[in-house]
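Record format v2
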Amino acid sequence: DVKVTQSSRYLVKRTGEKVFLECVQDMDHENMFWYRQDPGLGLRLIYFSYDVKMKEKGDIPEGYSVSREKKERFSLILESASTNQTSMYLCASSRGGGPQHFGDGTRLSIL
Amino acid sequence: AQRVTQPEKLLSVFKGAPVELKCNYSYSGSPELFWYVQYSRQRLQLLLRHISRESIKGFTADLNKGETSFHLKKPFAQEEDSAMYYCALSGYNTDKLIFGTGTRLQVFP
């Protein structure tokens, strides 16, 4: 069974802090994704990566960056957290052409 | 523009009633369509994809290219079907997904 693990279920940070969200998958998937999930807006893609050190912007990349130094790990970075980045963040992974498998999510609050 | 539309935010039915969750899409080409489900306190998971043509937990979905729709149907709803349902599409030669805004299904006893 595919396991996608996000490092924190809940996180509280302050405005202006640099925030790291970590995601690890154990199935050697090429693709990894970061979404934010907001009521009434569904899931919106922030960034995705199709290989180590490769990344592409999604629909809402502003204020975020990512890092993929190893195939199994994909990090989302909020360079300077703002209150409008309070949200649920979901990580997913997939094999090329296969369905996406999601983690449990990180509920991030920016105060 | 590529878009997935789920017109209903909330759908409430009684146990045993038929269910249809609507999904319409906009895509210039041949997309692949998916339904994902998120039960309370659980992770988002794949329910079905149109290329599989499967019935999962009694749910089916048929891709109608003429109407650009991929509605999710079940003839007799169960209480355990209560969840958030998302329709999604991926385009040709990409693994990115475009999600709809989701429909919450409530099944009352």
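DSSP finds no helices and eleven strands in chain A.
The two ends of chain A are 37 Å apart (CA to CA).
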